[in-house]
């Protein structure tokens, strides 16, 4: 008898891919998708190649080459990573694949850890691809086999789109026997298939459209597609239907259970798990309903498809949802929110409050503003630039990573944040305009902050552009030796691969020189005085300058001895007011003692930055500095 395992959704996706015979796995870390490839690496399967690629475009292109060589391949990313990979994805549907190719794109409704809410079902539609939308970890596990099989049957990539709650929720999963797969045949030359020319693209576009139409019209329900017909309505009564997809289906079932005694009408239910929708099943559902409420996170994908199908089938069914103001337009779904929508939509249930599952309401959660960790090297880098440039006008273009949190007070050192790699190029645009409207004495100094992993992801091209076009900016590369924001994954500058094996170190300074930057400074992020001097020297220069601030992420090194506050503390508050370190706070004055700083020994890592700026020398430690030097 096969085993039952308790799995996180991302683990289920990885194990489902291995069960389906995946041979090549690539990706770029991005919450909520990162654990998929990490699970593959943990399993260390024989005969399977897996790697973190430098970015999502590279990952997809590698997987495409493998799939065109007949190997079942998987590439993982989050929704904004699909923007980076969109160029090869759009063309890949025209050339097609020989082995199955599943593009796993984790969407982030909320958004919880992203700069945008994007619905990758829409991207799949845009690229004319089929899309699987799992509602549970077990469904994601089972969908992997069908996704690979469908990809091979139609000869094109398909998308698997889990959302944050599916990726990071746990459930029991029944393990299934491994699917037998033959060894890939290797790449077979065929320039009438793999080389895309305009004439071939036109012919293939016609085939793509016809294949999608045929699939929608004829495909049977697959994993994730469910239709539950309600009893016929009483004479004169209205027949109600509810349609949902993804994790929203789970919330719907829970909401219906909570409201079972309050609803006078039992609705028909439709669950959509694969796109394009199975038209036969959906037409049957629509024919059985007078009104349908569609519940889905992010875009109105199911709603639009059902409304179009109802119109083309000459049905009088009214499809309601986001377009009609009957559902939420943004953010995550919730059981409580769906209860409210159901009671407003279903006749006879108006005004009924959703029952609570707890007698004692949960207290409100405390506010937790995002902040750089205690001991984070980025704090020292930001403050060194801020202190060195005091009294001067500067602009600070940020980027995607932990250092985005440098926008918060008291550092306030991030003026822009667009997407990965954009900080360097945005700084160029800001500098261009400033040079147009100011003379050289009045123009501010333009800084761009970017992390080591992000620089190697998409920052190099921006630096080349700055050098080639002679822009006047200071690029600060905050090198903490990891991809910290997504969980500490390796990158090309770290000397190791996903499986922990040694790899060549891509030296960031050498890359900068090759990209055209010849004025490069190195600073220890934990050496305040030395960093300030380097920033001032770089700011006095002109053209493209690069400062590489080095200092390990606190998750990579042993914690140092916490600092203590001596009696010489004057209570000036400089340490707390300037650094914003969560390990520092001020004790207010009382009748017996003046105000003074205090250190939370649990949070303090002993980095020593606060000790270096204390005018009274009141913060002391056996470890005044940390880092590998400049």
What does this protein structure show overall?
With 630 residues, the chain is of the alpha/beta class. It folds into four domains: 4-218, 3-Layer(aba) Sandwich (Rossmann fold), CATH 3.40.50; 226-345, Rossmann fold; 377-550, Rossmann fold (3-Layer(aba) Sandwich); 564-620, 2-Layer Sandwich (Alpha-Beta Plaits), CATH 3.30.70.20. 35% of the residues lie in helices and 16% in strands. The protein is built from 19 helices and 23 strands. It has a seven-stranded mixed β-sheet, with helices on both faces. The protein has a five-stranded mixed β-sheet with strand order 9-11-10-13-14, with helices on both faces. Helix 17 (528-540) links the parallel strand 18 (519-524) and strand 19 (544-550). Residues 622-630 have low confidence and may be disordered.
Task: Give the SSE map.
Layout (H helix, E strand, L loop, with lengths): L3 E5 H11 L4 E4 L7 H9 L5 E4 L3 H12 L5 E6 H17 L5 E6 L13 H7 L3 E3 L4 H18 L3 E3 L3 H5 L1 E5 L23 H21 L7 E3 L11 E6 L1 H12 L9 E5 L1 E2 L3 H9 L3 E5 L5 H12 L5 E3 L14 H11 L31 H12 L5 E4 L24 H16 L7 E7 H18 L3 E7 L28 H7 L4 E6 L3 H13 L3 E7 L13 E2 L8 H6 L4 E4 L8 E4 L9 H5 L5 E2 L10
Descriptive terms for the model:
single chain, Rossmann fold, alpha/beta, 7-stranded mixed β-sheet, disordered C terminus, about 625 residues
In the CATH scheme, the class of the largest domain would be Alpha Beta
User: Main sheet: which strands, in order across?
Assistant: 3-2-4-5-7-6-12
Regions with little confidence, pLDDT below 50 for 5+ residues: 622-630
Oligomer: single chain
Second-tier CATH architecture of the largest domain: 3-Layer(aba) Sandwich
């Amino acid at each position: 008898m096969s085993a039952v395992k308790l799995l996180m959704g991302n683990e289920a996706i990885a194990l489902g891919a291995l069960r389906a015979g995946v041979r090549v796995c690539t990706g770029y870390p991005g919450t909520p998708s990162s654990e998929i490839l990490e699970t593959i690496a943990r399993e260390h399967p024989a005969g399977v190649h897996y790697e973190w690629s430098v970015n999502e475009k590279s990952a997809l292109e590698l997987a495409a080459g493998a799939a065109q060589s007949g190997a079942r391949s998987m590439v993982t990313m989050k929704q904004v990573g699909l923007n980076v990979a969109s160029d090869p994805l759009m063309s890949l549907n025209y050339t097609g694949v020989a082995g199955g190719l599943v593009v796993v794109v984790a969407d982030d409704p909320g958004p919880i850890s992203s700069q945008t809410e994007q619905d990758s079902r829409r991207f799949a539609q845009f690229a004319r691809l089929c899309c699987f939308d799992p509602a549970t970890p077990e469904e994601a596990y089972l969908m992997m086999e069908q996704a690979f099989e469908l990809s091979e049957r139609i000869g094109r990539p398909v998308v698997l789109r889990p959302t944050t709650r599916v990726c990071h929720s746990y459930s029991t999963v029944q393990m299934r026997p491994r699917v037998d797969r033959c060894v890939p045949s290797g790449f077979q030359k065929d320039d009438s298939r793999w080389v895309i020319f305009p004439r071939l693209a036109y012919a293939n576009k016609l085939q793509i459209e016809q294949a999608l139409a045929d699939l929608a019209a004829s495909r049977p329900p697959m994993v994730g597609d469910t239709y539950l017909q309600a009893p016929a309505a009483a004479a004169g009564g209205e027949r109600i239907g509810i349609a949902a997809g993804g994790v929203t289906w789970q919330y719907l079932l829970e909401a219906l259970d909570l409201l079972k005694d309050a609803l006078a009408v039992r609705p028909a239910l439709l669950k959509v798990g694969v796109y394009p929708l199975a038209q036969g099943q959906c037409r049957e559902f629509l024919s059985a309903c007078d009104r349908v409420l569609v519940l889905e996170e992010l875009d109105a994908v199911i709603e639009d498809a059902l409304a179009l199908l109802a119109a083309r089938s000459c049905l009088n069914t009214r499809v309601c949802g986001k377009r009609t103001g009957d559902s939420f337009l943004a953010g995550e779904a919730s059981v409580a929110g769906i209860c409210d929508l159901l009671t407003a939509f279903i006749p006879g249930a108006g005004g009924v409050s959703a029952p609570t599952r707890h007698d004692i309401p949960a207290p409100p959660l405390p506010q937790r503003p995002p902040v750089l960790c205690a001991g984070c090297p980025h704090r020292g880098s930001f403050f060194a630039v801020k202190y060195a440039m005091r009294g001067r006008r500067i602009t600070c273009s940020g980027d995607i990573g932990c250092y985005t949190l440098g926008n918060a007070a008291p550092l306030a050192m991030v003026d822009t944040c667009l997407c990965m790699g954009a900080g360097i190029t945005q700084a160029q645009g800001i500098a261009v305009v400033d040079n147009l409207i100011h003379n050289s004495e009045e123009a501010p100094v333009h800084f761009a902050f970017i992390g080591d992993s992000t620089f190697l992801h998409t920052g190099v091209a921006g630096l080349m552009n700055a050098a080639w076009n002679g822009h006047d900016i200071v690029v600060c590369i905050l090198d903490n030796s990891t991809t910290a924001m997504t969980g500490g994954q390796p990158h090309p500058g770290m000397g190791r691969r996903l499986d922990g094996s040694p790899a060549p170190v891509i030296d960031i300074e050498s890359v900068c020189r090759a990209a055209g930057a010849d004025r490069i400074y190195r600073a220890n992020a934990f050496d305040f005085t030395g960093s300030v001097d380097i920033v001032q020297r770089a700011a006095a220069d002109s053209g493209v300058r690069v400062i590489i601030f080095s200092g390990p992420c606190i998750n990579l090194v042993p914690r140092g001895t916490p600092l203590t506050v001596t009696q010489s503390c004057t209570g000036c508050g400089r340490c707390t007011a300037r650094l914003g370190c969560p390990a520092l706070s001020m004790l207010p004055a009382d009748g017996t003692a003046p105000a003074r700083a205090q250190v939370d020994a649990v949070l303090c890592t002993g980095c020593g930055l606060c000790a270096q700026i204390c005018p009274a020398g009141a913060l002391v430690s056996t470890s005044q500095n940390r880092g590998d030097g400049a």
